[in-house]
Structures are given as structure tokens and as C-alpha cells.
Amino acid sequence: MKVKEVAELAGISVRTLHHYDAIGLLAPSQKTAAGYRLYSDEDLGKLQQILFFKELGFSLKKIKEIIHSPSFDKCEALQLQKKCLLEERERLDKMIGLIEKTIKHEQGEIEMSNKEKFAGFDFRQNPYEQEARRRWGDEAIDQSNAKLAEISEEERKQMGEEMNEIYRKLAHLKDGSPESKEAQAAIAEWFTFLNRSAGSYSLEAFRGLGEMYVADARFTKNIDQFGDGLAKFMRDAMAVYADQNK
């Protein structure tokens, strides 16, 4: 299958497949004399594994280490992935049950104690932080938290205004090309802002963050408040920036 066909089949972008090839994560088995990538059934099996691991929050670097390891066992990996997804389904089922119970309470059908109202919630860990730790490791997140702990409330407010201004600037550009000079200048501001205010971001981490803007509905919803499609535009612009500044 050609790259465009694989992208449509898997629901990912052609740019993503090109990136996987460039970093040695998934190289197509063949290339035509004209340079077209051709993916075999075995390649598609590897891509499925990559997407399973990505869905579970593994970084591309970690996925590459896993699937290229001589000891990698596909069936064993599928069992692990199934176990993780079942645990997530169990958590979601508990939350759905709590919502249904709360609806009955609000309608006067049952009584709920205050303790019952919050059974299942656990915000001792920030879900965004957990995701980031899985993707980029503890050190970068600890640096970010340390920086944020040192700034005053007024500085936090200024940072928020600066961040929103960058979002608005990018929103004005979102209907154009993410490769344009204007888009890359604006996304460079975003890269600089993140490194100044939230820790040290490598180019790969920056790219990964852009991917999460689209993969994680929470991010997409927040970013797209500035304009529909902004999250996708930022993802693409961040990928271009990472490629051009290697």
C-alpha cells in the first residue's frame, strides 16, 4: 500500500508516517524506482502496535525501543495493551455509575452521602502531568513545577495574558499554511514561551506536545476556544518547527 492509502486506513496523517520513517520507527519495506513508499502487511502490523502503545501514552522513543528489541513479542505486547485498556474501561465504568447514581439523587429517587458523591474521584495527581511524565519523563515536569512555584500571582497573570496573545496570533493564521513564515515566527514564540515559563522542552518534546493537542480532547477543546481547528494547525506548525530546527 502507498503512504496515502495507509494514512487513510489508519486515520493518521501522511506527515506522521513520514516522521515515523525519518526517526527509524517504521520504515516501509519497499520503495519504487520513483521513490514512493510501499507498506507491506507486516509493516501495517507494526503500525498497529505503534498506535496501540501511543494510545496508552508511550513516547515514540520508548515505542521504538520496545518494538525493535530482539526480545519483543507481539502477542505478549497485545496482552499488556489489553490489560491496560481493561483497567481504563473499569475506571470509566465506575465514573459512569457514579454519574447515574447522582442523577437519581438529583431526581429524588435515592439519597447519597457526601462521601458517596465523590467516590471514584482522585485528583491527587494532575492527569496532564501524568501524561507528560509518561511521554517525557520526570525531570522536565519537575523543572516546570519548580519554575511555577517560584513565580508570584502577578507573574502568573502576565504569563496567562502572554500565552493568550500567542494563541490569538496563531488563530489569525490558522487558515493558512503552517509552513508559512508568519506561522513559523508565531510558533517560535510559543516554543520560547514554553521553555521560559514551563521548563526545558526539546524539539522532540515540543513535537510530541503538538500531537497531544489533537490526540487529547481536553487540550483540543481548550485551544479551539480561540478558533476551530487551531489545535490541529498548532500541531502541524510545531512539527514543521521541530523538523526545520533540528
From TrEMBL:
<keyword id="KW-0804">Transcription</keyword>
<protein>
    <submittedName>
        <fullName>DNA-binding transcriptional MerR regulator</fullName>
    </submittedName>
</protein>
<keyword id="KW-0805">Transcription regulation</keyword>
<dbReference type="InterPro" id="IPR000551">
    <property type="entry name" value="MerR-type_HTH_dom"/>
</dbReference>
<keyword id="KW-0238">DNA-binding</keyword>
<dbReference type="InterPro" id="IPR012925">
    <property type="entry name" value="TipAS_dom"/>
</dbReference>
<dbReference type="Pfam" id="PF07739">
    <property type="entry name" value="TipAS"/>
</dbReference>
<dbReference type="InterPro" id="IPR036244">
    <property type="entry name" value="TipA-like_antibiotic-bd"/>
</dbReference>
<keyword id="KW-0010">Activator</keyword>
<dbReference type="Pfam" id="PF13411">
    <property type="entry name" value="MerR_1"/>
</dbReference>
<dbReference type="GO" id="GO:0003677">
    <property type="term" value="F:DNA binding"/>
</dbReference>
<dbReference type="InterPro" id="IPR009061">
    <property type="entry name" value="DNA-bd_dom_put_sf"/>
</dbReference>
<feature type="domain" description="HTH merR-type">
    <location>
        <begin position="1"/>
        <end position="69"/>
    </location>
</feature>
<dbReference type="InterPro" id="IPR047057">
    <property type="entry name" value="MerR_fam"/>
</dbReference>
